[in-house]
Each structure stands twice: as structure tokens, then as C-alpha cells.
Design a protein that fits this description.
- Helix content is 46%, strand content 2%.
- The chain is mostly helical.
- It has a two-stranded antiparallel ribbon.
- It is elongated, with a radius of gyration of 24 Å.
Length: 167
């Protein structure tokens, strides 16, 4: 007669010994993100219209950094809420326990290693597995300037066709 799988300990019980450290790390990260957003807001407020291309590029970078900081802050707040409800450390996909070593490395993780390797969920969540990676296949090669290409880059000094030494 097959045995029933052993019941898993509640994530909070399993992590009880690690929760003070993980909570402190999350709170530190939360403070940092709030300070970062305040500084970015002050920089944005101090800037006027973008008269030059360089000013426009700086503004675009500030906007992207602020978006990433807001997403990181949202992930931190979700992790803190999961700690408060007792669901921290449980995978949002398969409900398996997330390894402690992963939580120590990425305290905002809501996915186990197996679910992280799967493509993004269809629920459209920005923090689902695979969402930090492009969903489309990347080209096989990169050119020296960072542009994608389907074939290897040939140095400009190399001739297109071999030059014959025979006249």
C-alpha cells in the first residue's frame, strides 16, 4: 500500500530560524528603495524640459531606474506581506517550499527553482517565473556594438571575398 507523502511543515515554521534575518534584509532593502525613489524624484523635479539629446537621454535613464525601483519596492512589500500572512517561502506556482538558500540569495523570491525555469505565467504578472527574461528567443550572436545579429560579426578589416594573388 503506497504511503501518503509526509506533510510539509508550514513555511513559517520551516523558516522560523531564518525569518529575523530575512525580514531585516527586506526592511533594509525597502528603506533603500524608498530613499532611492525620493532621490530620483528630487532629481526629476530639479530638471526642467530636456533641451538637448543628452538631457533627454539622462531623463530616460532616470525614468527607467525609477520604474525598476518601484517594481523592486512592490516585490519587497509582497514578500513582507507573505511573511505577515505565513505564506512566505511557499512557491506561488506549485506551492512547494522554496529552498532557504534561494530565499537568502533573493529574499523577494516567490517561485521555487523549478517554476523559475518555466516560461512566464499566463496571468500576466510582472513577477512571475521567466518574467525577468525575454520571452522570445535571442539571436545567436551579438555584434561588437551590442546589436543582435543572426550571423557572426566579420571584422571590417577582413575582405568580403578572398583576394587572389594571381593576376
Amino acid at each position: 500500500m503506497p504511503r501518503a507523502p509526509a506533510p510539509q511543515a508550514a513555511p513559517i515554521e520551516r523558516l522560523a530560524h531564518h525569518l529575523p534575518e530575512l525580514s531585516a534584509v527586506l526592511e533594509d532593502q525597502r528603506r533603500f528603495r524608498l530613499e532611492q525613489l525620493a532621490e530620483l524624484g528630487a532629481l526629476e523635479a530639479a530638471r526642467g524640459p530636456a533641451p538637448t539629446a543628452a538631457d533627454a537621454a539622462r531623463r530616460e535613464v532616470l525614468v527607467k531606474v525609477a520604474e525598476a525601483a518601484r517594481q523592486a519596492l512592490a516585490d519587497i512589500d509582497i514578500a513582507l506581506a507573505l511573511i505577515a500572512t505565513g505564506d512566505y517561502g511557499r512557491c506561488g506556482g506549485c506551492r512547494a517550499d522554496i529552498p532557504v538558500r534561494l530565499l537568502r540569495a533573493i529574499p523577494t523570491s516567490r517561485w521555487c527553482l523549478d517554476c523559475r525555469q518555466r516560461p512566464a505565467h499566463t496571468d500576466g504578472s510582472a513577477t512571475g517565473p521567466g518574467s525577468r527574461h525575454r520571452s522570445h528567443a535571442r539571436p545567436a550572436f551579438r555584434t561588437p556594438r551590442g546589436h543582435h545579429s543572426r550571423r557572426p560579426h566579420r571584422p571590417r578589416s577582413a575582405p568580403r571575398h578572398p583576394v587572389s594573388s594571381n593576376p
